[in-house]
Amino acid sequence: MERPYVICHILSSLDGKITGPFMGTEAAGALGAEYGRYRTEMNARALLYGTTTTKEFTGFRKPVLEETEEVPEGDFVADDRADLYFVSVDVDGEIGWESGIFCNKGRAPAHVIEVLTASTPTAYKACLRKTGVSYIIAGEKELDCEAAMKKLYQFFHIEKLLICGGGIVNWSFLQAGMVDELSLFLAPVTDGGCGTASLFTQIQPFTEGEPVEFLLREIEQIGGGGGATLELSAPKQKDIKMIGGEAMKVLLANGSPHKEGCTYTALCEVADTLNKEGIETEIFWIGNKPIGGCIACLKCGEKGCCVFDDAVNCFREKAYGADGFVFGSPVHYAGATGNMTAFMDRLFYSELRGNGNKAFYMKPAAAVVSARRAGTTVTFDQLNKYFTIQEMPVVSSRYWNMIHGANAEQARQDAEGLYTMRVLGRNMAYMLRCKEVARKVGVELPEQETPVFTNFIR
Fold first, then answer.
1. What is the rounded distance in angstroms from the CA atom of residue 73 to the CA atom of residue 206?
2. Spatial CB neighbours of 53, under 8 Å, sequence gap ≥ 6
3. Helices 415-440 and 262-276 sit at what angle, rounded to 10 degrees?
4. Which pLDDT belongs to residue 2?
């Protein structure tokens, strides 16, 4: 899933209002404190708000615009390493920022990201650049919610995001299929008012859509005042497959030096198929900087991880939360890339020696290979050897998992290759479900025997 996991986190009255006189009641105040605590505990890297809500936070301050002929086209990233982001949807360019850092009372400082469109005034974009506010372009004239989420993930590495109102932005992202979960704090109060913002609000004809049904997953009473929290799954997540109460996830490693080339194209086809099967995915790019090979220092047995703290250790940490894996590489001289070979050598050995293979044991895995012409079967065989030495069930397809092309565009024309990737995705989903059914009926993992090592020369 090449976008953040999105939770709509809202405090409302019994009649669905998110602002109004009810907010001044004792019951809403007590619940508001719990709402804020939960927001912090969710540990999301970004909070997203609509234009009206952000105006309230900034005191309705207007931007100071200067005449300018042009600004560089596209997005502007002022800080992609912030601990926290404040994301504001502001397609008309109405919010006046004094700094690229927003400090709201009782919250940690957050770097500001504005979500604009191509038609947002040039003078406003220049103002944001001067102030140090990042911005992304999502849509030509109207907001493209999906594009916004993909860019927040791509440029700022945001893996979890909370949408916190108002009603229009809540509805827009929900209708676009960008909301995974609704976290609703329901105050035991109503003021019967009208004209105030609701939990979800349409603005005709711009945000019309079909009714949305949620699936209630959990309800809990909060405090002694009668407030409650409701955790609901959004439609896309209604039938998601679960392991131990959490969504299944497949981690896909892109071993190409090109972030979005042929290998990425193949992995995306697998990931999209898994998503349609209700399984979350994440594509991890190992990067294009040199990755050194294993130096046989054996320190991973002491540290529990590789002594070289790079993409290997980063991926290993993510591996603990994954239920299945796909490793992809282009062909370089009839084998996997040098970086991918070093990456997998150190990844699998350091995990086996340092942690007893806990991250990979009995988790399904598959290899994917891309090439302009030849060398695919040798590389495919090379990658599969890692799985079979780590006790990982190997997932197959209708053909060997390979795709052909000299670039991403050509790879997208390999109809049989794409078909092979889709079959692989469905087979991976099937194997994960089978494993979950086995767990539920009490089938235990195989008993592990103490390894025996035999040297041929004594």
1. 26
2. 164, 165, 166, 169
3. 40
4. 75
How many CA atoms lie within 13 Å of 339's alpha carbon, on the beta-carbon side?
Answer: 20
Rounded to the nearest 5°, which phi and psi values hold at 180?
-95, -25
**H/E run at residue 402:** strand 402-404
Contact between residue 65 and residue 121 where contact means Cβ atoms under 8 Å apart: yes
Exposed (0-12), middle (13-18) or buried (19+): which is 172, by Cβ within 10 Å? buried
Segments of the chain scoring below 70 in pLDDT: 1, 194-196, 203-209, 223-225, 235-246, 458
CA angle 68, 72, 73 (to 5 degrees): 115
Mean model confidence pLDDT for the chain:
89
Collapsing DSSP to helix, strand or coil, 429 comes out as: helix
Backbone angles phi, psi at 296, to 5 degrees: 55, 40
Provide the 3-class DSSP secondary structure of residue 419: helix
| Angle between the N-to-C axes of helices 338-355 and 376-389, in degrees from 0 to 180, rounded to the nearest 10 | 10
Tell me if 133 sits within 8 A of 113, measured CB to CB. yes
- Name the residue with tokens 């052909």: 404
pTM for this model (two decimals): 0.55
Which residue is associated with the tokens 């603005």?
203
| Nearest to 283, CA basis, from 393, 213, 349, 368 | 368
> What whole-number distance in Å separates Cα of residue 139 and Cα of residue 146?
9
Residue-level pLDDT at 332: 97
Angstrom distance (rounded) from CA 247 to CA 270:
17
How far apart, in Å, are the Cα atoms of 275 and each of 19, 44, 213, 272, 443?
35, 22, 19, 5, 27
Return the axis-axis angle of helices 311-319 and 338-355, rounded to nearest 10°: 50
